[in-house]
Design goal:
- The chain starts with a strand and ends with a strand.
- With about 220 residues, the protein is mainly beta.
- Strands 1, 2, 6, 8, 9, 11, 12 and 15 form an 8-stranded mixed beta sheet that branches. Strands 14-13-16-17 form a 4-stranded antiparallel beta sheet, with no helix packed on it. The chain has a 3-stranded antiparallel beta sheet with strand order 5-7-10, with no helix packed on it.
- Helices cover about 0% and strands about 50% of the residues.
- It is elongated, with a radius of gyration of 32 Å.
Length: about 220
């Protein structure tokens, strides 16, 4: 369990953590033909032109594969369903969070997942290889606890502690989210987060809504 240790002062708290691009090209070549009869060339009348023959671009033979998941974030212990489809390929091989030979298209349920996982699928054809990758995040629980401050910064007793705010985000001192705790008697909190690195800081609140400065900052990685 992570532990916040506030300093003895309302306006400052100290926090300690325990805790493949497929490219195709097409041409539009036109040829000018002339008919001859005994050495005489027949040409179109001035001002007229014959449209070039209609041509359709040749279909691309480059291999490609698309891979998708029904969820991009799941709780620990849950499964996900992966779906894929290859073009101009003969076989596919799974790697990363799954393995084995796969058909050129299909779906599969994988898991249970206990941490963030990356899935890869490599498909091969006469034109070469194509690779698709995706990642699925797993929610993790970070448990935080702290000791309530007991004094104001001037040394007087803190008698009107009303609650706390836990701030967090993916950048240092750049907090995009917060959890409000509306009781000064609460000393712990669980925060559920997806895979990633998070920075935490904490403040205290009095009954009038006055807020202390940030505590020191800690970082926690959710795998």
């Amino acid at each position: 369990m992570d532990r916040f240790s506030p300093s003895r002062g309302f306006t400052q708290m100290v926090l300690v953590a325990l805790l493949g691009v497929v490219a195709g090209c097409s041409g539009n070549n036109s040829a000018v033909t002339q008919e001859t009869d005994q050495g005489t060339v027949e040409r179109d009348p001035p001002g007229s032109s014959s449209p070039p023959p209609s041509q359709s671009p040749a279909p691309s033979s480059d291999p490609s594969v698309a891979l998708s998941s029904n969820e991009d974030t799941v709780a620990s212990g849950e499964t996900v369903q992966l779906s894929w489809s290859g073009q101009n390929v003969d076989s596919c091989t799974a790697s990363g969070g799954w393995s084995g030979t796969r058909g050129v298209q299909g779906s599969a349920t994988v898991g249970p997942l206990n941490q963030g996982t990356t899935f890869s699928l490599t498909c091969s054809g006469s034109g070469g290889n194509a690779v698709a990758m995706l990642s699925v995040s797993v929610l993790g629980v970070i448990s935080l606890s702290w000791e309530p401050p007991t004094e104001n910064v001037d040394g007087s007793p803190l008698n009107d502690l009303a609650g706390y705010r836990i701030y967090y985000g993916t950048g240092s001192r750049d907090y995009s989210d917060q959890v409000a705790i509306n009781s000064g008697g609460v000393t712990s909190q669980d925060v559920v987060l997806a895979t990633g690195s998070y920075y935490f800081a904490m403040t205290a609140m009095d009954v009038d809504g006055n807020e202390s400065g940030y505590s020191n900052e800690v970082v926690k990685i959710v795998n």
